[in-house]
């Protein structure tokens, strides 16, 4: 595993807690306060106004010329004079031309003109997670992580280098690290954890339209050829190991590592995961324990985790059968689900603004999207407005990830990817069938907190309860709680009740992780496979 380390932000700024900042920005919600883009309807309205003004200006000047012949002569003379002067100026030496340049320092409050960008010209919102974090005055650090199969991942950080408490937040499907900071200072889990003294790491799974990979010429079909297996056995291990390297190095330099901790890790790492991120994290913990490797984690907090999906709506059931029957054909036609061109991504970025500006249009889109996902009442329109859906990039979903979810739903089990034949499965798992992760929950040696949403129709509470029952039966230290939330409310909406609960569970971090296999479980060996079979 190769990691490229990029440091951004102040080392000293990360050492102290920004107490006054939280109080002064309590009601600052970043996705409402700094979204200055225009929607498509606003652009059309502005264009029509400019066109009408241009037409009337033309007739106004034409009328003036017709009623005053002297103006025609004067304008003609000025035009010829200007043309002659301009040609002489161009033919001269232009190397001594003075160009105004800004010499103001970064701390100077005087406003400066920004360079024009494509996003600025088109008035789209292309803010990154870094922009959101630094605009609010928090320190920021970016770490490029390269997985063993060559994918380049972005691990973002709100650093507290001297903290022995760390938290790793992992997003779900069609999401990114932006989901953990999009509600501003008060409503975002990432900022809440940082203000409680945690070193915060924000993971980003593979699956961006920009196709970050060490092979710059990788094709779209090759890039998107992965399942949830790769999320759990490539992406998360690479990021967790990088977190471990960073924390142990920094704490050793700062002299905070004690002799008693030399045999273990000098920090506690809690993982908070949503939806698909929760399933990938469970896969990571179970497979690492099977391989007898340390997982570095001290606690799991899983918000509506994926894995079991048999209790779902008719739309998802229809998609399940379609994917399973047509997989050999669809995988060749549709490598992934995303908006393929910059123009249509720009159009979505601007339409999202229209959906918010015009309640009737937004309400219609909200109703249609809610119906597609089984009546889930999440703010789907609001999520479309997040800046990670921009003209340059956006998160997508691999066809094989969707097929993997369909396989789980059909099998009624939380299991790893089915490679399509007993021989292929035997090569990877050592058995003709994919590994049933639920059967190996006894390997989980850390506390797990499961959270479900009563109004969640994407992953219903009954499916989270199934995780809970299997863990409880396997002797896992597990808790279960429910809130009146829909699926996206766990990350996108401002929920003080949820934040308070998550923070209270994080405070329970104590003791080290037990790195011993349960006596009633047999050890298995999983082999690496370069690509998913079609």
Please summarize what this structure is.
The protein is 43% helix and 11% strand. The chain is an alpha/beta fold and 534 residues long.
Could you characterize what this model shows?
- This is Partial AB-hydrolase lipase domain-containing protein.
- It comes from Linum tenue.
- By secondary structure, the protein is an alpha/beta fold.
- Among the domains are: 2-9 and 130-303 and 416-506, Alpha/Beta hydrolase fold, catalytic domain (Rossmann fold, 3-Layer(aba) Sandwich), CATH 3.40.50.1820; 315-398, no CATH class.
- Helices cover 43% and strands 11% of the residues.
- The chain is built from 19 helices and 11 strands.
- The strands form 2 sheets. The chain has a 9-stranded mixed β-sheet with strand order 1-2-3-5-4-6-7-10-11, with helices on both faces. It has a two-stranded antiparallel sheet with strand order 8-9.
- A hairpin with a 5-residue loop joins strand 2 (141-146) and strand 3 (152-158).
- Helix 12 packs across helix 16 (399-411).
- The longest helix is centred in the N-terminal third of the chain and has 28 residues, at 40-67.
- The radius of gyration is 28 Å and the shape is globular.
């Amino acid at each position: 595993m190769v990691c490229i380390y990029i440091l951004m932000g102040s080392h000293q700024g990360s050492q102290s807690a920004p107490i006054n900042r939280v109080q002064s920005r309590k009601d600052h919600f970043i996705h409402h306060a700094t979204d200055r883009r225009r929607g498509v309807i606003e652009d059309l309205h502005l264009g029509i106004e400019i066109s009408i003004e241009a037409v009337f200006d033309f007739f106004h000047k034409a009328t003036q010329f017709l009623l005053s012949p002297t103006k025609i002569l004067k304008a003609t003379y000025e035009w010829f004079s200007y043309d002659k002067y301009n040609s002489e100026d161009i033919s001269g030496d232009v190397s001594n031309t003075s160009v105004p340049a800004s010499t103001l320092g970064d701390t100077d409050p005087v406003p400066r003109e920004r360079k024009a960008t494509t996003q600025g010209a088109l008035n789209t919102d292309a803010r990154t997670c870094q922009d959101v974090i630094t605009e609010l005055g928090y320190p920021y650090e970016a770490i490029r992580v390269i997985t063993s199969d060559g994918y380049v991942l972005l691990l973002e950080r709100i650093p507290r280098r001297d903290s022995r408490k760390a938290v790793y937040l992992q997003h779900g499907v069609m999401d990114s690290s932006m989901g953990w900071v999009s509600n501003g200072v008060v409503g975002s889990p990432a900022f809440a954890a940082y203000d409680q003294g945690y070193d915060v790491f924000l993971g980003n799974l593979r699956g961006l339209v920009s196709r970050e990979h060490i092979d710059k010429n990788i094709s779209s079909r090759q890039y998107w050829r992965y399942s949830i297996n790769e999320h759990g056995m490539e992406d998360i291990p690479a990021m967790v190991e990088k977190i471990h390297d960073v924390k142990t190095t920094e704490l050793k330099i700062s002299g905070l590592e004690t002799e008693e901790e030399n045999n273990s890790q000098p920090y506690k790492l809690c993982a908070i995961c949503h939806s698909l991120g929760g399933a990938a994290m469970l896969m990571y913990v179970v497979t690492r324990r099977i391989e007898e490797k340390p997982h570095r984690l001290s606690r799991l907090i899983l918000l509506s985790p994926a894995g079991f999906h048999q209790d779902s709506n008719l739309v998802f059931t229809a998609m399940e059968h379609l994917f399973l029957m047509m997989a050999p054909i669809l995988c060749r036609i549709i490598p992934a689900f995303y908006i393929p061109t910059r123009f249509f991504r720009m159009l979505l970025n601007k339409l999202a603004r229209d959906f918010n500006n015009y309640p009737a249009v937004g309400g219609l889109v909200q109703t249609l999207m809610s119906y597609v996902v089984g009546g889930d009442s999440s703010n789907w329109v609001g999520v479309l407005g997040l800046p990670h859906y921009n003209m340059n990039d956006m998160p997508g979903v691999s066809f094989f990830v969707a097929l993997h979810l369909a396989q789980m739903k059909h099998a009624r089990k939380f299991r790893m990817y089915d490679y399509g034949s007993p021989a292929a499965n035997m090569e990877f798992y050592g058995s003709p069938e994919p590994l049933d992760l639920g059967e190996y929950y006894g390997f989980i040696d850390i506390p797990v907190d499961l959270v479900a949403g009563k109004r969640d129709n994407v992953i219903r509470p009954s499916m989270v309860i199934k995780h809970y029952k299997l863990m409880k039966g396997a002797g896992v230290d597990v808790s279960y709680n429910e809130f009146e939330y829909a699926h996206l409310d766990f990350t996108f909406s401002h929920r003080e009740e949820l934040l308070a609960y998550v923070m209270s569970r994080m405070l329970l971090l104590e003791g080290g992780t037990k790195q011993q296999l349960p006596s009633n479980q047999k050890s298995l060996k999983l082999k690496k496979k370069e690509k998913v079979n079609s």
